[in-house]
Every structure is written in structure tokens, then in C-alpha cells.
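A favour, since you know our C-alpha cells better than I do. Would you make up a two-line entry for one protein for me to read? Write everything out right here, beneath this request.
=====
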Amino acid sequence: MHHPLLIETDTLQGRLGESDLVVIDVRGKASYEFGGHIPGAVHTTWHEYSDPNAVAKSLLNPDLAFLEHRLGALGISNETEVVIYSNPYDNWGDEGRMFWMLEYLGHKRVSILNGGWVKWTAEKRPFEHGAIMPRARTFKAQPVKEVIVTKEELKRLVRLGHPQTAILDARSLEEYLGKEISGIPRPGHIPSAIHVPWNQFLNKDATVKDPEFIQELIEEKGIRSDQELICYCLGGIRSSWLYFVLKVAGYQKVRNYAGSWWEWSRDFACPVERDFHRLQQILGYTQAAGSA
């Protein structure tokens, strides 16, 4: 599949070494340094850009100068082309999070490697070990407010009603229905949220499914193409992947709630819904009780 937001493995291999191209590996540091990485790829993870003072771990650091310096140190300028990759079957959509963050900060030339490390290694393409020390460049952030949503904004939407906006929950069905999670004060989901699990959009070779297939999945949920779509999950990572997938499928008005359930569940002024009966059913409690 040829799509402007995705780059294929053969295309990337042919472009390695270009001076205006930065390849970012967002896997764990050990995987990057010792397990091998694409030649010339630099390493970073979404944690490095989080607000150190926030309880919700996934909120972006509000210090734009810090973010600019961190990205510039990777060799990224406003003009460089950026390609992001990870192991799509061994994370929570981290490459989507990096894509969303760069879009929010105003970078206009960002794509994700289709199939990531899974497809790259399956095709026996070149790799190397050890860290890469890139030449620093200057990056200037120009935040795009249209791709992010805050807790207060979302709270207002839920309170007033939002026929032109669909709220999409990218977590597992158990989390959506209200499974208890350690460290999370209140289980459940945002009222009116539609369950759209993040992990249903990959082919067996870890490439992204065709836009038409994605559109069908979304439309089956009753979501309209003219609606604004707001994505959230537990910590804004899986929802970032859903954000990216929706962009691939052609949806234009998509936003990500970075604070997600980490933040929402801690504010008791934020409404929560839970379907305890259905949760019991899918976890097998009803069946177990009936056979006892």
C-alpha cells in the first residue's frame, strides 16, 4: 500500500543515509542498542517528552523549549523528513504517539514505517548495533491545537452533548466496561464513548490494513465521516495509534486526549460509566456462578 503517511521497507532502505532524513526507533533502549536497529536510526521514547510534574504520565511537557531541544538533539529540524518505527506487535502503539506528538508540534513531514521492525527483519534488511550520535539541528515548535483535546474541553463536550463529535475509546473491552486496574481510581469509560480497540488494524506481517477496511470497521460502529473524532485510552498511547490509523483511512478531523483515563479517572468531577453486568459476562463470572 502506498500512502503518504506510510513508507514501505524497500523505499526506506533505498533512502538510508540521506542528509534530510531522520529515522527514529521508539522501541526500548535495550532492543535498540543490543537487538539491532535500522542503520543510522536514532533512539527516543514517548516518556522523554512527558510532563515530569503531572500525575497523568502521558501529558506532554508544557515546556516547548525543552521539547524543541530534545527533538533538535535527534537531528530533527522543521525541514527534515522523519520516519518512525517500532515493533508493532510488541508495544502499545508507541510509533503512533511519536507521530501524533510531532504533528501537534507542527512538523509536516512525518511518516511511519509500514510493518516496522517486524517486516524489516523478516525481509532480512540491513541493521546495526550500538547508539547513534546525530548532528544536532534546530527545531521550532508551532503547536497545532486542532489535534489535541484537554480534559476541561472534553468534560464540557460530554456535559453539553456532541452530535458532531464521536469519542472513541481505544482500550480493551474489559477496560472499557470497567475492569479494575491497579493505580486507577475509577474504572469504566467516558459517557457516550464508542469502543474502537486499537489493536485490530494490522495485517499478519505488521503492515497497516487498507484504508477501505479501516473505514468499514469505523462505519460499523455508527461513526460518520463528517464527525470530529476524539481518541483516548489509558495513557494516550494506544489512542495515538488509533489517531494515526484514522488519518491513514482519510479521516480529517481527529484529535487525541493525551491525559486519557490516567487523568480523567482522577478528577471526580469527570463523569464515568461502567457496564458491570456485561463485564461479568465476558469475564465468565456469570457462567461460573451458574455451574457452581
Q: What stands out?
A: Confidence is low (pLDDT under 50) at residues 286-292. Strands lie at 6-7, 21-25, 42-43, 81-85, 110-113, 165-169, 194-195, 228-232, 254-256. Residues 146-291 form a domain with the Oxidized Rhodanese; domain 1 fold (CATH 3.40.250.10).
